[in-house]
């Protein structure tokens, strides 16, 4: 048989195997080097963003369905963590899976809208979810705590013998944040693995065919309902699990955090990272996810920013962050629409041609 | 796929369309009373002007009518003895009809190989898929060279080859082609023509919709001419090639010179006016 199967393998070349190994090794070692609470927080939230962005990438990057409803699914997951994990005291694997199942089911209910709507129309409908979500979160007092929100600090975070809130290996005790870092990035790694496996296999080709030409996809025998809704289910399930971790990290879940800005942040992450590439979602999450926190941290070094009006400076930190996101989105869409991941691919290609032409 | 090729005269045709009526949005009649047969192992061409119903007929055969808010309101379509009218396009692909869509419609972000694999979506047998893949690569050496590249960057002719290859990957019993020569250079059209002949020689029946009537009639066994959603003429390709009206309308070889077959009505008017002028009378002659 003449079929060249390199494209079907998860890690086709030795180079990719080595570089993935290095990335994992660095990831494992980070908490040994970084101990400051601020940078650990940054890395934890980047990991949570990576989880959610990998999920959104399945929907938007592979299947071409742009959604602004991601924040709603994150919120569903966060409240699941608060209600089942903290209030009911379910163990970690159970409340996390429950968040995934709840997200997936709600995604499956919303998905059919995508069969009739495309492009901007789908964006508007998914945006509607965010407002419906905030309304539900504010009014379903018994579960969500209404406008006061609810706490997640009691949520169980242990798996077998490992309590991620305080675990240690001989010679080293990890802080709660460092434990959370491992948990979050292990999950992000799993999500990456799942979505990389989807994209290189039969269902992944089906999703991309739907994205490129949906009628032509039907003509080759791909069922549009199954794959369009399936993408919604996977994506929102991952989003809900990311939301659950976000709820745990913040120790508090309030109704207004799940707003349109959070959704836009996720869309920006996958655009800046590289739409349709699994690595892009992770790169975008690392680069863009914690950016607002970093800007806030270093705002005293930037004279044009103010925290409290009247302190001097011309824009508030929050406004500056929104402007920064907008500017980055525009810059990337204009100059590098395939994102950070494409920059990396291009560097690799240049290296290869430089090597082959003496 | 070639098991019945020897006794095609006696067996059921691979595709039979019976008294088909199609309406768009329950109102506009797209086809009315269309009947035709594709004999096993043959090439049947469908000719007709714009708006004659060629594409509607293909949509009906491949199950794409619902996408265009149309449905079959009368008649039936039978593939190899099994009714397929009203089934979903997915089910029809599985039943054995693959379509090369007008305008190619390849998956631009996917590589050639990925396009082909997606084409074999309904075939679960990996060995069979690999064999078809190798066969397609043999037919199209040009795209085989570029198998790892994104198909969206290819020229029109190469994309058409990817599109045909993709359809073949479904291992169809009937291959349906919608305007495969549209917008391609004459040399590429000749290549595509040859490929269709080769595919047919391997036993796949072909239903070919073409505006390029001389190309279509040069390879088809039979042809059907559609006009205003009805079958206006049907016969062997030889018969139609030598028919004065067909020459006039579709082959650009008639007395009126090379007229656009795209607008049959315009042409009727023109020939009628010419006849009237010749007769020296101001009245309009019969069509």
Give a description of the structure.
The complex is a heterodimer of chains A (358) and B (287). Chain A is mainly α and 358 residues long. Chain A contains 16 helices and eight strands. In chain A, helix 2 packs antiparallel against helix 13 and helix 4 packs across helix 11. In chain A, 47% of the residues are buried. The radius of gyration of chain B is 20 Å and the shape is globular. In chain B, helix 3 runs parallel beside helix 6 (156-168). With 287 residues, chain B is an alpha/beta fold. In chain B, the strands form two sheets. Chain B has a six-stranded mixed β-sheet with strand order 6-7-8-3-9-10, sandwiched between helices. In chain B, strands 2-1-4-5 form a four-stranded antiparallel β-sheet, covered by helices on one side. Chains A and B meet through helix 9 and helix 10 of A and helix 2, helix 3 and helix 4 of B.
- Count of distinct structural domains of chain A: 1
Average residue pLDDT of chain A:
86
Query: Structural class of the secondary elements of chain B?
Result: alpha/beta
The major β-sheet of chain B equals: 6 strands, mixed
CATH topology description of the largest domain in chain B: Rossmann fold
Largest interface, C-beta within 8 A: A-B, 23 and 36 residues
Rg of chain A, Cα atoms, Å: 21 Å
Tell me the series of helices and strands of chain B, N- to C-terminal. Answer: EEEHEEHEHHHHEHEHEEHHH
């Amino acid at each position: 048989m003449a079929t060249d199967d390199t494209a079907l393998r998860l890690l086709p070349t030795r180079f990719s195997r080595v570089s993935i190994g290095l990335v994992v090794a660095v990831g494992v070692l980070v908490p040994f080097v970084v101990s400051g609470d601020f940078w650990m927080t940054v890395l934890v939230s980047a990991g949570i963003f990576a989880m959610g962005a990998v999920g959104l990438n399945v929907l938007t990057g592979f299947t071409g369905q742009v959604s602004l409803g991601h924040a709603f699914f994150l919120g569903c997951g966060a409240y699941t963590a608060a209600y089942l994990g903290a209030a009911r005291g379910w163990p970690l694997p159970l409340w996390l899976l429950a968040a995934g199942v709840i997200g997936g089911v709600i995604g499956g209910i919303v998905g059919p809208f995508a069969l009739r709507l495309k492009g901007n129309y789908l964006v508007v409908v998914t945006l509607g979810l965010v407002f419906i979500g905030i309304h539900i979160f504010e009014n379903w007092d018994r579960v969500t705590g209404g406008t006061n929100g609810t706490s997640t600090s009691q949520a169980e975070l242990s798996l077998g013998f490992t309590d991620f809130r305080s675990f240690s290996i001989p010679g080293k005790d990890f802080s709660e944040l460092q434990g959370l870092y491992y948990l979050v990035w292990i999950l992000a790694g799993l999500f990456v693995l799942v979505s990389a496996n989807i994209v290189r296999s039969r269902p992944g080709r089906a999703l991309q065919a739907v994205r490129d030409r949906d009628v032509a996809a039907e003509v080759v025998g791909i069922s549009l309902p199954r794959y369009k809704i399936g993408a919604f289910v996977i994506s929102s399930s991952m989003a809900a699990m990311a939301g659950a971790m976000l709820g745990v990290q913040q120790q508090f879940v309030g109704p207004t955090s799940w707003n349109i800005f959070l959704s836009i942040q996720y869309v920006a992450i996958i655009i800046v990272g590289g739409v349709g590439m699994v690595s892009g979602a992770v790169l975008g999450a690392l680069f863009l996810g914690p950016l607002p926190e970093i800007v806030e941290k270093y705002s005293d070094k930037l004279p044009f920013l103010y925290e409290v009006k009247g302190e001097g400076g011309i824009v508030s930190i929050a406004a500056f962050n929104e402007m920064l996101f907008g500017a980055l989105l525009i810059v990337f869409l204009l100059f590098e629409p395939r994102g950070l991941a494409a920059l990396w691919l291009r560097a690799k290609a240049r290296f290869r041609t430089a090597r082959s032409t003496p | 796929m070639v098991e019945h090729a020897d006794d095609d005269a006696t067996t059921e045709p691979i595709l039979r369309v019976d008294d088909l009526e199609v309406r768009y949005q329950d109102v506009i009649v797209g086809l009315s009373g269309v009947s035709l047969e594709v004999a096993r192992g043959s090439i049947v061409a469908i000719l007709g002007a714009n708006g004659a119903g060629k594409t509607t007929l293909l949509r009906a055969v491949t199950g794409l009518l619902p996408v265009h808010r149309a449905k079959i309101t009368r008649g039936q379509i039978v593939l190899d003895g099994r009714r397929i009218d009203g089934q979903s396009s997915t089910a029809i692909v599985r039943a054995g009809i693959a379509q090369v869509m007008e305008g190619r419609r390849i998956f631009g972000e996917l590589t050639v190989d990925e396009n082909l694999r997606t084409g074999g979506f309904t075939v679960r047998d990996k060995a069979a898929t690999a064999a078809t893949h190798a066969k397609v690569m043999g037919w199209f050496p040009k795209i085989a060279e570029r198998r790892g590249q994104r198909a969206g960057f290819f020229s029109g002719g190469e994309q058409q080859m990817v599109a045909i290859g993709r359809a073949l990957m479904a291992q169809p019993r009937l291959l349906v082609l919608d305007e495969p020569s549209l917008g391609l250079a004459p040399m590429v059209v000749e290549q595509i023509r040859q490929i269709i002949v080769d595919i047919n020689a391997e036993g796949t029946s072909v239903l070919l919709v073409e505006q390029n009537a001389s190309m279509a009639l040069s390879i088809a066994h039979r042809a059907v001419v559609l006009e205003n959603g009805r079958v206006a003429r049907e016969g062997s390709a030889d018969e139609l090639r030598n028919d004065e009206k067909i020459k006039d309308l579709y082959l650009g070889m008639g007395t009126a010179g090379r007229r656009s077959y795209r607008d049959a009505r315009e042409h009727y008017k023109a020939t009628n006016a010419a006849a009237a002028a010749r007769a020296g009378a101001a009245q309009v002659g019969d069509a």
